[in-house]
Structure formats: structure tokens, C-alpha cells
Design a protein that fits this description.
alpha+beta, six-stranded antiparallel sheet
Length: about 190
């Protein structure tokens, strides 16, 4: 059974354009996202983070605990699999037993990730931009249906916050342009 969907270059370019439209990569950390990772981390008793999958990297929008890095190369990012996964919740109960990840430096060294569960951040346009993830340094058997619902609801809340943020920024930019046009027109009338 195939667990991923093939992606064309055109689909990936469109996904990246949508991601860029949120103007959130490399931004300052925002409290609304920190609250979501904190609540999710507490609910699961694990580290939680929000990732965004860019062209060559996974960028961390928020983490429930401080980490030393803001980004990871995409080829090492476990979350990059979510962009092409067919599953609503991407789950790896024991990373060492999964041939896709057992040699990954995030598993063999560094944070020693053993368990991973993530729900995709799906934009209104239908693109998977990243994930709301939980990780643990111990394997877990599975998560319950209720926990799957919590994780997907948290991912939906992240996406709602991203959409609201983008809409607010677009509105502010539009208002700024209107003011600039108004000032330009006033200057023109004074000259005439």
C-alpha cells in the first residue's frame, strides 16, 4: 500500500507560493503559536512543535520547549514526509524500527526522536504547508482516536491563526497603499 502521493514540480511550486503568501518564514516568534504548542505539548506529555516545509528546509514556527535550532535541512526533516503523506495523522511509533528514519541524525543523535505524530497544516487552497507535531524520546505504541482528534484540531487552529494573520497583514498593506495614494492625490491637487 502506498502511503504517499507523488508530487509534481508544478504542485510543489504552487505549494511553496501559497506558503510564501503567509509571510511567516523567519519571522519573530508570536505568542499565539507558542500558546498552541504549549497546550498541545501538555496534552500529550511530549515536545510539540509547528513546522513549515520550505524549499530546502523545515522551519520551526514554534516549539513547546526551547530548542537550539530554528530550522533543519529538508532532507532530514521528518515533517517533510507530511507534505506527501496520504494519512490525516502521520504516525511513527518507533523511529528506529522504520527504515525511512532509523539512520536519520534526529533519531540516532541530537534529540534522539523515537516517537513522532503530526497532523498536516492544510491551507484553504488545499496545500499541506507543514505540521503540528509531537515527538518523544521514547517509543509509543499508538495514539487514541481522541488524541488524533486533538492533534488535528490543534493543526486546524494553527492554520486558522495563520489565515487570520495573513488577512490582517493584507488589510494593513491595503490601508497603507490607500493612504499613500491619498497623499499622492493631495500633492497633485496642490500642484494643480
Amino acid at each position: 500500500k502506498r502511503s504517499s502521493e507523488p508530487q509534481t514540480v508544478k504542485q510543489e511550486m504552487a505549494r511553496l507560493q501559497v506558503l510564501k503568501s503567509y509571510n511567516v518564514l523567519d519571522c519573530e516568534r508570536e505568542e499565539c503559536f507558542h500558546r498552541l504548542t504549549s497546550v498541545c505539548g501538555s496534552a500529550f506529555g511530549a515536545m510539540c512543535f509547528i513546522s513549515l516545509i520550505d524549499l530546502g528546509r523545515m522551519w520551526l514556527l514554534s516549539t513547546s520547549v526551547p530548542v537550539e535550532v530554528d530550522e533543519v535541512p529538508r532532507d532530514l526533516a521528518i515533517c517533510a514526509h507530511a507534505v506527501i503523506s496520504k494519512d490525516k495523522v502521520f504516525l511513527v511509533p518507533d523511529m528506529l524500527k522504520d527504515p525511512r528514519f532509523r539512520e536519520n541524525p534526529m533519531v540516532t543523535g541530537g534529540p534522539k526522536i523515537r516517537f513522532f505524530a503530526g497532523a498536516a497544516l492544510v491551507s484553504p487552497e488545499g496545500y499541506k504547508l507543514g505540521m503540528m507535531c509531537i515527538v518523544d524520546d521514547k517509543p509509543r505504541k499508538d495514539i487514541t482516536d481522541a488524541e488524533r482528534n486533538i492533534l488535528t484540531s490543534m493543526a486546524d487552529a494553527v492554520m486558522d491563526a495563520l489565515v487570520s494573520r495573513r488577512n490582517r497583514m493584507l488589510k494593513e498593506e491595503g490601508e497603507k497603499r490607500i493612504r499613500e495614494i491619498g497623499m499622492t492625490m493631495a500633492d497633485t491637487h496642490r500642484i494643480l
